[in-house]
Specification:
- The complex is a heterotrimer of chains A (about 325), B (about 350) and C (about 280).
- With about 325 residues, chain A is of the alpha/beta class.
- The longest helix of chain A has 16 residues.
- The two termini of chain A are about 35 Å apart.
- Chain B is an all-alpha fold.
- Chain B is about 75% helix and about 0% strand.
- Chain B has 13 helices and no strands.
- In chain B, helix 1 crosses helix 13, helix 5 packs across helix 8 and helix 8 crosses helix 10.
- Chain C has about 280 residues and is mainly α.
- Chain C has a single domain, classed as MetI-like (MetI-like fold, Orthogonal Bundle), CATH 1.10.3720.
- Chain C has twelve helices and no strands.
- In chain C, helix 1 crosses helix 12 and helix 3 packs parallel to helix 6.
- The chains are: A alpha/beta (about 325), B mainly alpha (about 350), C mainly alpha (about 280).
- At the B-C interface, helix 1, helix 7, helix 10, helix 11 and helix 12 of B face helix 4, helix 5, helix 9 and helix 12 of C.
């Protein structure tokens, strides 16, 4: 069975007004199997959002595709024109639950109208009456009071319901892959759990096949994903199973990330969070050596000059020559 | 019933507010002109006193006093007099009361300049011209300005770079300047359009084809004067609003969902339009003022000209009659826009219904 | 201070301030260097521009250049006075209402909206026409200030209301400062740059309002102003006679001043309000 999503040496860049090229995603590869949840963790600015746009084939200038391929269920989505990408890929084969979902709903449009817009944009011939019935069934199926939510304007719904409405709309067309971009950041703990449970339900019900869960809170992924990729400065620096990455991080950045977040999870020693010093590198400048060298607590002189590559260490991939 | 219909509640509330504003306007309209030393009777007397002897002058004065409601009269019309035989003047308060009652009935008094013509008559002839000029111009200008602004925001590029400074200029130039420029350039120098008036001399206003043709010819320049300014102002505002809307999260999400471009443009337009409508409500008073001045420049036979001639001749009843009418029109227009906004913006409805949890 | 320097680097600000200064220089400086006399007849009516009279003569045969310079000065004075009055009134009402909140705020806002809706030109006409014999420049400026304050009241109130919840204000309240003290010490300093911008706009409004009202014939009785020049030009059919020098320069000046002030205001907004910086 072909993996649901294959990303092959994907490189994506921004072109600024002055012609400067910023390689926001630099050679990222991974596979997503059916039924799998992949967690992608990293600070803001590491390229997560750009990676998402790249995986969806949505290249709006100044964002451009440099090289590499993305295949969903075996079919490439690179090279399709914007209109084809819009009709067939976006929302249909791969969909996103955006960051800041609470502001993502058009304030002057009822939920059902927005959802209908989405359906009609992909299939003009859809029957209007059928659409409303379809919406009602879907929302009920994912545990929402369809009457209340569908007929409401975003301003009339509480935050948790808005989030779930967004999830409902994003998965309306049964996309194979759904990307959840920081779906829990603006919510309180109980709502967070409800949202995560909803996401699991979607997979259990077969509405979506696989999921990518993006967050900057690494410990959160313990309950969510089966594997994790840690991203830094446009590259993956560690890729492995959740157990391995969270309990036995190898890459210095992963270790720093783990110790910089408070976690009440059992099994995590309650320790003082340590902020990671420094800032991510400026990707507009040419990269020499390890990108984490400036901030790495175990940095060696060679790190500044030798480019680091992913290598296999105890069953997972780590981008550092000096870990064992 | 009101409990279940937040929109209706909103409308009723606004209506009450506008009625209050109207009352204040009428009060201002009454008291302001009386602040100074202006006196319609004196003005009238100045016109006729030269040719009369003292007794006829006194009679005439009393007749005028009676006509302008400045003295107390009995039910049969004779002046009430005090011990010395002089007419008793009405207090300011009862004058106001009478004024209010009469205004609501539509009786706005008699013109001084065009005595004995009644003010309401003069206004009745002038009002249609003003409405015909201002209403379509402001409405069309608003629509055109917003469409162009949206286009500039969406397309950017060459169109925007050319359009933006032009619109900026059009919005900064004072209303009368455009009028004077157009009159001079196209009316006098190039003689493409008539510079003065609403229709050819010698023609009598009617619904005949000939008259309408002539009137439309005279319509062009005044129309353009007001139209260009409204378009400029609206375009600038709409352009910024649309640029803002295009950068919002909900537009980004809609794009990510694969929603059609045309639909997204509709979202942008609809959401940017709401603050534009609010802006319109606030700017209506100024727009109407500017349009009145334009009428004066073109000697267009509307309320603007009526006010101008009234000012020049110290015709107080006519001045106040016109101002009251203009204010009423502006209030009605404002109310309509308010109602429209209430319908279109769910956020206002939600605010009235108690908002989200 | 840094902000002020940033202001001087902004091209639009420089353009605006340059234009405005030029007009002020013209108004104040011309009488010092040239013979400016707007009261004596020097030739036939509506003489075209010549080397003797740079802008020709008006409908009475008075030197147009003198009229223009004198009128410019009057208009600028009126604009500044009206702007000051309007800004003062608007700021007082706006700051008080915005800071107090509650019923006081509701009442003041309702009153402001009331006067906002009633066209200010109308109120101006009513006020001016009642003062048949006393219309001095100063009085007109006063009247204009009293009818155009609504906009600044609204704008300042919004700013003041947003400051109301700030920590230092609450601290001052806890420490027992009275309303007046808090407003003067803790709110006004933050609003100063905003109030200044409001003042610029109100001055522009004042100049335009004076031009409008004078054009209608309700201008100052015994002085010359730009609007009055336009009024007399139209009344004496300068337009139809093609005597462009009788109205075009005045019109041009009014537009330039208004435009310059608007540009200054926009550039200040760009510098003082970082959110607008693209």
């Amino acid at each position: 069975m072909a993996p649901v999503l294959e990303v092959d040496h994907l490189r994506v860049h921004y072109l600024t007004r002055f012609g400067v090229k910023i390689q926001a995603v630099d050679d990222v590869s991974f596979r997503l199997e059916e039924g799998q949840i992949l967690g992608i963790a990293g600070e803001s600015g590491c390229g997560k959002t750009t990676l998402v746009s790249g995986c969806m084939g949505l290249y709006i200038p100044p964002l451009h595709h440099t090289s590499g391929d993305v295949r969903i269920a075996g079919r490439s989505i690179i090279g399709l024109g914007p209109e084809q990408n819009r009709r067939e890929v976006l929302g249909r084969r791969i969909s996103i639950i955006p960051q800041g979902a609470l502001n993502s709903l058009n304030p002057t449009r009822k939920i059902k109208d927005l959802a209908a817009d989405m359906i009609l944009s992909h299939d003009e011939s859809a029957d209007k009456k059928q659409i409303h019935e379809r919406l009602r069934q879907r929302f009920e199926r994912i545990g929402m009071d369809a009457e209340q939510v569908l007929g409401a304007y975003p301003v009339e719904l509480p935050a948790g319901m808005k989030q779930r409405a967004v999830i409902g709309i994003s998965t309306l067309l049964d996309p194979k892959v759904v990307i959840a971009d920081e779906p829990t950041s603006a919510l309180d703990v109980s709502t967070q759990k409800a949202v995560i449970r909803l996401l699991f339900d979607l997979m259990d019900e077969g509405i979506v096949s696989s999921m990518i869960f993006i967050t900057h809170e690494l410990p959160l992924l313990r309950h969510v994903s089966s594997s994790i990729a840690v991203m830094y400065a446009g590259e993956f620096v560690e890729v492995g199973t959740t157990e391995e990455v969270i309990y036995h991080p190898r890459h210095p950045y992963t270790k720093a990330l783990m110790s910089s977040t408070l976690s009440a999870e059992p099994g995590q020693r309650i320790r003082k969070p340590v902020a990671i010093e420094g800032a991510p590198p400026n990707l507009a400048k040419p990269m020499v050596g390890c990108r984490f060298a400036e901030r790495c607590p175990t940095v060696r002189p060679a790190c500044h000059t030798e480019r680091q590559h992913l290598r296999l260490v105890e069953g997972r991939q780590v981008r550092c020559d000096y870990v064992e | 019933m009101l409990r279940n219909h937040p929109t209706l509640r909103h409308m009723v509330g606004r209506m009450g507010w506008y009625l209050l504003t109207f009352l204040v306007a009428v009060t201002i309209n009454f008291f302001l002109p009386r602040l100074g030393d202006a006196n319609p009777v004196d003005t009238m007397m100045a016109k006729v006193s030269g040719s009369l002897d003292s007794q006829s002058a006194k009679d005439k004065e009393e007749a005028y006093l009676k006509e302008f409601g400045l003295v107390e009269v009995d039910s049969d019309g004779t002046l009430q007099r005090d011990a010395a035989g002089k007419p008793i003047r009405t207090s300011l308060a009862s004058q106001f009361g009478r004024y209010l009652a009469k205004s609501l009935r539509g009786d706005l008094g008699t013109s001084i300049l065009q005595h004995p013509k009644r003010v309401s008559e003069i206004i009745k002839t002038a009002l249609p011209w003003t409405l015909a000029l201002q209403l379509p111009t402001i409405v069309l200008g608003w629509i055109a300005g917003n469409l162009l602004g949206a286009l500039a925001a969406y397309r950017r590029g060459v169109f925007d770079r050319v359009f933006y400074p032009l619109a900026l200029l059009a919005s900064a130039v004072p209303a009368f300047c455009v009028g004077i420029l157009l009159v001079y350039l196209f009316g006098i120098r190039l003689e493409w359009f008539p510079a003065v008036g609403g229709y050819d001399d010698g023609m009598v206003p009617s619904w005949s084809w000939g008259f309408l043709e002539s009137a439309s010819y005279y319509y062009v320049l005044p129309f353009l004067s007001i139209f260009l300014i409204v378009v400029g102002g609206q375009a600038i505002g709409m352009r910024s609003m649309c640029i803002y809307e295009l950068g919002t999260d909900y537009v980004k999400y809609a794009k990510l969902l694969g929603i059609r471009e045309s639909k997204i443009l509709l979202y942008m337009f609809r959401n940017a339009m709401l603050p534009q409508l609010t802006g319109l409500a606030l700017a209506l008073g100024t727009m109407v003022g500017g349009a009145l001045i334009t009428e004066m420049i073109f000697s267009y036979p509307g309320l603007g000209m009526a006010v101008l001639t009234a000012i020049q001749g110290n015709d107080y009843p006519l001045i106040t009659g016109c101002t009251l009418l203009v204010t009423t029109c502006v209030l009605v227009a404002n109310f309509s826009v308010d109602v429209l906004i209430g319908f279109l913006d769910p956020r206002i409805r939600a605010a009235h219904a108690g908002g989200a949890a | 201070m840094k902000l002020l320097l940033g202001l001087f680097k902004s091209p639009s600000f420089l353009v605006g301030i340059g234009l405005f200064s030029a007009t002020v220089l013209l108004a104040l400086g011309a009488p010092l260097f040239f013979h400016v006399d707007p009261y004596t007849r020097v030739g036939l009516p509506f003489l075209p521009p010549s080397s003797a009279h740079w802008l020709g003569t008006d409908h009475m045969g008075v030197d147009m250049f003198s009229m223009l310079v004198t009128g410019l000065r009057s208009s600028l004075e009126v604009g500044l006075v009206a702007g000051t009055v309007a800004t003062l009134a608007g700021t007082l009402i706006g700051v008080y209402g915005g800071f107090k909140g509650g019923l006081v705020d509701d009442v003041l806002t309702a009153a402001t909206n009331l006067f906002l809706v009633i066209p200010s030109l109308i109120v101006l006409i009513l006020l001016s026409s009642s003062l048949e014999h006393g219309r001095s420049l100063f009085l007109i400026a006063l009247i204009i200030g009293c009818t155009t304050w609504t906009w600044s009241a609204r704008a300042v109130r919004a700013q003041s209301a947003s400051l109301r919840g700030r920590d230092h204000v609450n601290l001052a309240r806890i420490n027992g400062y009275g309303t007046f003290g808090i407003v003067v010490l803790h709110i006004l300093p933050y609003l100063l740059s905003y109030i200044f911008m409001v003042f610029i706009l109100q001055t522009a409004t004042g100049i335009l309002a004076e031009a409008s009202i004078s054009m209608l014939g309700l201008g100052p009785y015994d002085s010359v102003s730009l609007g009055k020049i336009l009024n007399e030009a139209i009344r004496n059919e300068a337009l139809t006679d093609g005597a462009w020098w009788a109205f075009a320069p005045a019109m041009f000046l009014v537009t330039v001043i208004a435009f310059a002030l608007f540009v200054i205001n926009t550039s200040m907004e760009g510098v003082f309000n970082p959110r607008l910086r693209k």
